[in-house]
Amino acid sequence: MARIVAGIGTSHVPAIGAAIDLGKTQEPYWTRVFDGFEESKTWIANEKPDVCIVVYNDHATAFSVDLIPTFALGCAAEFPPADEGWGPRPVPVVPGHPKLATHIAQSVILDEFDLTICNKMEVDHGLTVPLNLLFGKVDKWPCPIIPLAVNVVQFPPPTGNRCYNLGKAIRKAVESYPEDLKVMIFGTGGLSHQISGPRAGFINSHWDKNFLDGLTSDPVGLTKIRHVEYMREAGAEGIEMVMWLVMRGALNDDVKEVRRFYTVPASNTAVGHIILDNRT
């Protein structure tokens, strides 16, 4: 059967993508960010996942205020990079895995999660930046990707508890898929940051590090955090952290922390990263 072997959490700061695209990764401002992912790139290259499920949020490219699904699963054969206002990023088209994606959709919907099924969808930096951080700048992504977009832009976003339970439903779906596949699941976004208003540039490192601790040792405790607490303690865009709980819910109760990295700031945002081995 297919199995989820690891979970990966990482920020998806758009300026990181710009630094990669413009060849600025070795500039002094950016070296600490990219150096922090070197070990992880070696680790995932050695692990060789067959499929990655990437939980991310769309930034008004595939969707808009006219159409806002709470959870949207990409079931297409490929996902082109979106034009976010300055042209599509110069990254490869993202290959999908329609068979596994549609199997997940069937299983999860019958478990009473109302997914939107997307048979055509463009993907933005929320998905492509995490791929760059783990796989590097490549001509072809090394494995198929299943995008899972979560609404954390328009109120009300799903609760952390709902996201965590969706992760559990995804694990059940993957484990019922008959093909022998090594699957990894990404939770992306965050960590603490706010991009507008009087608190623009707000970062709460203490909160972020406690959240990373909780992913390893007390994920159920994290599911109890309310929306208002995310906004107060992690900034208006800190709500993106609920997407990491989809990843964590898809893993076993006991996991092994393989790697952790945290730095501030990167374009006024905290950059967080964690790898959790699911084979304990």
Number of beta-strand segments: 10
Poorly predicted runs are none
- Helix residue percentage: 25-40%
**CATH class call:** Alpha Beta
Q: Give the total of domains.
A: 1
Name of the CATH homologous superfamily: LigB-like
Radius of gyration (CA) equals: 17 Å
Helix-and-strand structural type: alpha/beta
What is the architecture at the second tier of CATH?
A: 3-Layer(aba) Sandwich
Rounded average pLDDT:
96
Strand content: 15-25%
For the record, give the distance between the C-alpha atoms at the N and C termini, rounded to a whole number: 18 Å
Question: What does the model show?
Answer:
The chain is α/β, with parallel strands linked by helices and 280 residues long. It has a single domain (3-277), classed as LigB-like (Protocatechuate 4,5-dioxygenase, Chain B). The chain contains ten helices and ten strands. β9 (256-263) and β10 (271-277) form a beta hairpin. The protein starts with a strand and ends with a strand.
Summarize the structure.
The protein is α/β, with parallel strands linked by helices and 280 residues long. The protein is 35% helix and 19% strand.
